[in-house]
Write a structure and sequence with these properties.
This protein is of the alpha/beta class and 153 residues long. The protein has one domain: Rossmann fold (3-Layer(aba) Sandwich). It has 6 helices and 4 strands. A 4-stranded parallel β-sheet has the order 1-4-3-2, sandwiched between helices. Helix 2 packs parallel to helix 3 and helix 3 packs parallel to helix 5.
């Protein structure tokens, strides 16, 4: 419904399910502007994920989180690291491209990610910092190229 519009602004609409039909090309500028402001932006390709540990470690590596890689209690470790990140980063945006594949092969883990994300969201919200978990439902070639090119608009 809203795509990636205003992704650099703190709101309570922190989990987004984005469809290709909702994208208009402005998302590249939104992400580039967020990065220019120092907001941490992580992009992961869900089609490459085959286990919960893959998911948490891809996110942790993309965000350069303190305690990565995770071997045990990966969801607790991830949410703990995200809370820690909230104290020194100006914002957080996580994009999971091709998220529909998670609904097919790792649906429980997709919901664990949402739950862990929502638990730690309060730390960002209290500081009025943008914090988003975006599920790009269909894989999007434009986003893949953008993020694989270092996030240059």
């Amino acid at each position: 419904m809203r795509g990636y519009g205003h992704i650099g602004v703190a709101t309570s609409a922190c989990v987004r399910f984005v469809r290709n039909s909702e994208m208009d090309g402005s998302e590249r500028e939104e992400f580039a502007e967020a990065r220019a402001r120092g907001i941490r932006v992580a992009y992961v390709d869900a089609t490459a994920i085959s286990s919960p540990t893959d998911l948490t470690n891809l996110l942790a590596n993309a965000l350069q989180l303190e305690n990565a890689p995770y071997d045990f209690n990966q969801w607790v470790c991830l949410l703990d690291d995200l809370v820690g990140l909230s104290h020194h980063a100006p914002g957080l945006i996580i994009v999971v491209d091709g998220a529909w594949t998670l609904t097919e092969k790792l649906s429980e883990d997709m919901f664990d990610l949402i739950e862990a994300f929502l638990i730690q969201f309060d730390s960002w919200s209290k500081q009025r910092k943008p914090c988003y978990l975006c599920f790009q439902m269909e894989r999007n070639k434009s986003l893949t190229e953008f993020f694989n090119n270092g996030g240059q608009a």
